[in-house]
Structures are given as C-alpha cells and as structure tokens.
Amino acid sequence: MIFSTFAQAGFNSGDLLFQLLAFAFLLTVPPIIVILFFVFKRRNDRLKRVEDKLDRLLADREDKGD
C-alpha cells in the first residue's frame, strides 16, 4: 500500500510551472540589480554635474557683484 503512493509520485504540470517560474525569477533578479546600479550611478553623476555648474554660476555671479 505504501509502495503504491511512491510509484504514483510523478511530476505534475503545476510543479513544472512552479519550477519554471522560480527559475525565471532567479534569472531576472541579478540583471535587475545591475540595471538599478547603473541607473543610480548615472543619476548621481548627472546630479554632480548640475551641482558643479550651479557652483560655477554662483561663483561668476559673486565675481560680477564685487
């Protein structure tokens, strides 16, 4: 009786779907992390350029005001 349950234990389509979705999730997490890293790095670089430009404009304004 116990042996018959083990003999019928197969791989159901729900199990297959879950395994595929879990594998796809594992494959998509690292690229998302890398993309987010580059997006934030680019944003930080852009912010740094804007700050430098603003500092130059404020310095020019102070020079002309004197």
TrEMBL record:
<feature type="transmembrane region" description="Helical">
    <location>
        <begin position="20"/>
        <end position="40"/>
    </location>
</feature>
<keyword id="KW-1133">Transmembrane helix</keyword>
<protein>
    <recommendedName>
        <fullName>DUF4083 domain-containing protein</fullName>
    </recommendedName>
</protein>
<keyword id="KW-0472">Membrane</keyword>
<keyword id="KW-0812">Transmembrane</keyword>
